[in-house]
Amino acid sequence: xxxxxxxxxxxxxxxxxxxxxxxxxxxxxxxxxxxxxxxxxxxxxxxxxxxxxxxxxxxxxxxxxxxxxxxxxxxxxxxxxxxxxxxxxxxxxxxxxxxxxxxxxxxxxxxxxxxxxxxxxxxxxxxxxxxxxxxxxxxxxxxxxxxxxxxxxxxxxxxxxxxxxxxxxxxxxxxxxxxxxxxxxxxxxxxxxxxxxxxxxxxxxxxxxxxxxxxxxxxxxxxxxxxxxxxxxxxxxxxxxxxxxxxxxxxxxxxxxxxxxxxxxxxxxxxxxxxxxxxxxxxxxxxxxxxxxxxxxxxxxxxxxxxxxxxxxxxxxxxxxxxxxxxxxxxxxxxxxxxxxxxxxxxxxxxxxxxxxxxxxxxxxxxxxxxxxxxxxxxxxxxxxxxxxxxxxxx
Length: 395
Prior knowledge:
Layout: H1 7-13, H2 36-39, H3 47-55, H4 64-69, E1 74-80, H5 92-102, E2 108-114, E3 122-127, H6 130-134, H7 150-156, E4 160-165, H8 167-176, E5 184-189, H9 198-208, E6 215-220, E7 225-230, E8 235-239, H10 245-248, E9 269-272, E10 281-285, H11 288-297, E11 301-305, E12 308-309, H12 313-324, H13 331-344, E13 347-348, H14 349-370, H15 375-378, H16 381-387
Parallel strand pairs: 2-4, 4-5, 5-9
Antiparallel strand pairs: 1-10, 1-11, 2-3, 6-7, 7-8, 9-10, 12-13
């Protein structure tokens, strides 16, 4: 670990070595910037060896579920029996974090509250109480420097820590994990794709929602619609296929457009939605620490097995040129298309594979066009296997 007297010098002279590909994970805002060239996933993609370090093995490329969803012990669909008021869905992530604190499993939780001046502005915190965790409920759909609190973690003297984060943050965290001096580290991940800058988020809201100033949260859901929740409690839905792709293609962060870790491969436990039925959350247990977290809240959940239905490949292949060319169709046609696909399209784990395929093909093409020199080292073997199923337009 770097001596404290070096901290200010490193921080004041630090730059973003990943440049345009920086995901603003926060590592470079700390004296752990010393490790950034090894730790940054956009400078040194190392998911396979870090899987071995974290889970005891890397994914088995002969097993489709491993290829798509990473190393895992089990997957299940779940809901909170009693939802948390104001949570984005039923509050499973928040419940796990608060239970870990109240049961003494950890002494602090790295999570993200809102900034004081912006409902979507991320403010990473080291939460020490359930109330502080509860204040972090609801996703922040913008780039967030979660790892900027690592120095605070060290100063606090905490020995047992839970970190909630997305794939790029977690890969950087795993790379410096041994430098943190912790007795126990738990990582609770969420699947992540298509984050934006705050300006990009505003453009998305202004372009897509009927009332952008009142949106509390939103999500791209399994029914092929974007669901917006407004301040008055009302829900607005917009079909995927009705989005103004031409206007919105440039809002996503380049780091997200070159990412191949949608499912947060290096977290101990992952909670998202894309592999579960509509209204349920998809939980992926990757290792014994993940099982420990899930066991802690199982009495508070209703669960059901994950299922899979439909065929994703035709829809994915059709979507590749449509996105590439920025095709936008009339809203009435988009709604009709959405209804048809919702009835006959992929569901459950097949929907998750559809979403992964759609984003990996898009990101592989983006990388070929904008950063061709990075392709050999940056694209994991499992992502190459997924992309190889499809015909891509010329780079």
